[in-house]
Amino acid sequence: MTRKNINKPDIKVPPELQHQVAVTTLDKIYNWGRASSIWPMMFGLACCAIEMIITAASRYDFARFGMEVMRPSPRQADVMIVSGTVTKKMVPQIVRLYNQMGEPKYVLAMGACASGGGPFKEGYNVVSGIDKFLPVDIYIPGCPPTPQALLHGLIVLQKKIEKEKLSTSEWYKKEFHEEIPVPLLGPDLMDPRKFSLYMEKSKTVEEDQTTIDISESSIGEV
Ligand code: SF4
Fold it and tell me: Which of 43, 83, 120, 221 would bridge with 126, disulfide CB 3.0–4.6 Å?
């Protein structure tokens, strides 16, 4: 956002002060600061991560947009770029890292794998998109997306941030507490929120099994 965009056009600044004073709203200046310093978390999952690394390097250089500080700690990161194939083994760690990021936080699904499973969709070990677990703000198509596409996604995220309002932001509300239950990896992925449902289902299966056993044994007796 330029200085011109920050100024409220309906408030006239005297000509002698125009290069030194900007009159604006709290929302605009706050969003300008946040959108101009989005720090991504430093982690990658598969081939898409190489494109993300290239985007950070000198040719594309996303430092130009205030995103140069890739953080190795989720506590200091604003955006999680999910760059690569999300496996069932990795999802618990990704969700845990997301929970450890401070609000406001954003998620960018980079590439076909992170957005929907990609070429490995329906694979026994692959999750069909990170949006099954995390709220995704921006999806970037491609396999892999080019560095230009990632830059475009980040710019779209900046535009989204610029439209946010302090008065309606969820994360400043007292009652806001969004912790996503970390899925458990057993024979398959389990969502802790659905435990009672799993128990009910396993009971039904056990009962069915008993019925089959009884009827089979009675056939044997006859
Ligand atoms: S979308 Fe393509 S390039 Fe990206 S991680 Fe999946 S297979 Fe690799």
Answer: 120
